[in-house]
Amino acid sequence: MDSKTFLNNIRESALSMVHFANASHIGSCLSMAHILTILYNEILDIDLIKSNSNNRDRFVLSKGHATAILYATLAEVNLIPKSELATYCQKGSRLLGHASHFVPGVELSTGSLGHGLPYSTGIAWGLKCNGSKAKSYCLVSDGEMDEGSNWEAILFAGHHKLNNLVLIIDYNKIQSLGNVKDVLDLEPFVSKLECFQWNVIELDGHDFDVLRKTFIEINHIDSFQTKPTVILAHTIKGKGIPFMENNNMWHYKSPSVDQLEESFNVLKNL
Length: 270
What we know:
Blueprint: H1 3-21, H2 26-31, H3 33-43, H4 46-50, E1 58-61, H5 67-76, H6 116-129, E2 136-141, H7 148-159, E3 165-171, E4 174-175, E5 178-179, H8 180-184, H9 189-195, E6 199-204, H10 208-220, E7 229-234, H11 257-268
């Protein structure tokens, strides 16, 4: 499937899920949709994930509150039925409002921020010790980088040269209580990460070509073989839906019927 179609499919699914469940975090979902599209549509070996092979790459969504778009992505690659998406956040459903490891393709239940990267670091360490060529990917939010547990993991990974660990930071610059720079400023972000002995790649998190090239290079170019890699992805909260973009109201708000229809019309014309 071409990436644009995949992207619009998962965005439409996530918008519908959040609307019908009267749930939250659609802005956080949309900021990382391009990243999930390239990973699941082009980079990760879905057959290995389906078979739960020890040789599979692992992906952990640490910002588990934005799981609606992860579930939509898993349905798009046939890891779960698309029909099940309608049960999101409903009583008795395994599609909980925070990522649940009971869902096929979800490696770790997340949502308590600061847990995903330490887990992914441990996975990378284990894979390296076992001589596996698989990679450990972890996607975190920028606000989540306020958590000290992440910086402990970053220090550990750099020290142990975990070149099979790829951290992706969804840097949309807005967290639940306001702008990141006002809540707890992360800048100078790049130099901090470099000081912890990581390769740092700063890019546009909505540029398919750049994302694709970067993930391929991480897998194949020797310059990335002695350090863990962090992708600092500059993104826009609510990306793709103009009335949601850079509007922190959509961290918690769900779209009304009219807003859902407007969102679908916008996506059809992109």
